[in-house]
Amino acid sequence: MAKKKWGVVPYRMRNGFVEVLLITTHNDNWALPKGNLVKKLGAKRTALLEAYEEAGVLGSLKGQGKVFGKGRARTIHFYPMEVEEELKIWPEKNKRLRRWVTPSEAQRILKHKKHRKAVTKLTAYTQINLRKVRPERGILKVQIPALSNAHVA
Q1: pTM above the 0.85 mark?
Q2: DSSP state of 109
Q3: C-alpha span between 151 and 143 (Å, rounded)
Q4: Which has fewest Cβ within 10 Å: 31, 62, 78, 145?
Q5: Number of domains comprising the chain
Q6: Closest Cα partner for 126 from 80, 86, 83, 84?
């Protein structure tokens, strides 16, 4: 049975261009925030929690999550997440670095193929959806301990 992980591709728009937030792993490689499912939270809330704990960012999940590496030793579900707040203090601040990069730079420095594919999908998603801006429906507010609200679309 494949081990399953849930995470986000954190992004922001800067001067009309997409930037992606990467974090370091425990082995000092660059990666996207992800982690094991917290059953009582569910998939989307687990993804938001990983973004908070590992990268120190809060935001809204946009669009549908995508599955990468299905059927292999590890399956990863990534959701696009528009970053709305970048925290100065977060649980893994002393364990990780974070860095905003362009999608093309992310392709060069991400070690794992599944992470590179997730960035490619995000870039396609943002290019399509920036053309047709529409209000979000069905926003679910999520409380992360002692922090402001994050949103799940």
Answers
A1: no
A2: H
A3: 9
A4: 145
A5: 1
A6: 80
